[in-house]
Write a structure and sequence with these properties.
Elements (H helix, E strand, L loop, with lengths): L1 E9 L5 H18 L2 E7 L2 E8 L1 H13 L3 E11 L11 E4 L3 H17 L9 H22 L1
Helix pairs in contact: 3-4
Bound molecules: flavin mononucleotide (FMN).
Flavin mononucleotide binds next to α1, β3 and α2.
Length: about 150
């Protein structure tokens, strides 16, 4: 098992509706390929966590890197893992927009990984990187608002 996290910038014409259309196909394909994970969309940027068989994840990432709907694709972290973090999520998606839902979502992330011992005995380095990047995105968002 293997996981990786990357960030990228959505192209100007790749808006929320198109992202959701893309996800319908992506989820079918992920289910077939046994890929799970999470995609966050915030301020026209993506951060995605993918996990599954190593070759399958790397092949998907290679396709995603070439996808013309986004640019500035940057690998943040990758590692071998023993267990999935997102057992049932073919590709969870969160569009971070309203303050309240952000806070609830962040709480959910933290709860899942750091408070529920059954789900998170030892978060892997990539998932920690992912949550750190997620928190950074949210922090930036709140900093922007108060400026
Ligand atoms: C931000 C972003 C996230 C994506 N996530 C996935 C994904 O989780 N699974 C997937 O199959 N395709 C995903 N895609 C789409 C792939 O880049 C690619 O279009 C898809 O795998 C179909 O490729 P194919 O038709 O060449 O097989 C994503 C694309 C973008 C821009």
């Amino acid at each position: 098992m293997f996981c990786l996290v990357y960030t990228s910038k959505a192209n100007a014409d790749f808006g929320l509706q198109k992202v959701q259309e893309m996800l319908v196909k992506a989820r079918d394909s992920n289910a077939q390929q046994n890929i799970t994970g999470c995609l966050l969309y915030f301020n026209e940027r993506f951060i995605q966590y993918l996990e599954g068989d190593e070759i399958t994840v790397k092949e998907l990432y290679a396709k995603i890197e070439e996808d013309s709907r986004h640019s500035e694709v940057k690998l943040l972290s990758q590692s071998r893992i023993h267990n999935r973090e997102f057992i049932t999520w073919r590709m969870a998606f969160e569009h971070l927009k309203s303050e309240n839902s952000d806070l609830q979502y962040l709480k959910l992330l933290v709860a899942t990984f750091f408070e529920n011992p059954e789900n998170s005995l030892s978060p892997n380095p990539t998932s920690i990187e992912f949550w750190n990047a997620t928190k950074l995105l949210l922090t930036t968002k709140y900093a922007d608002k108060s400026a």
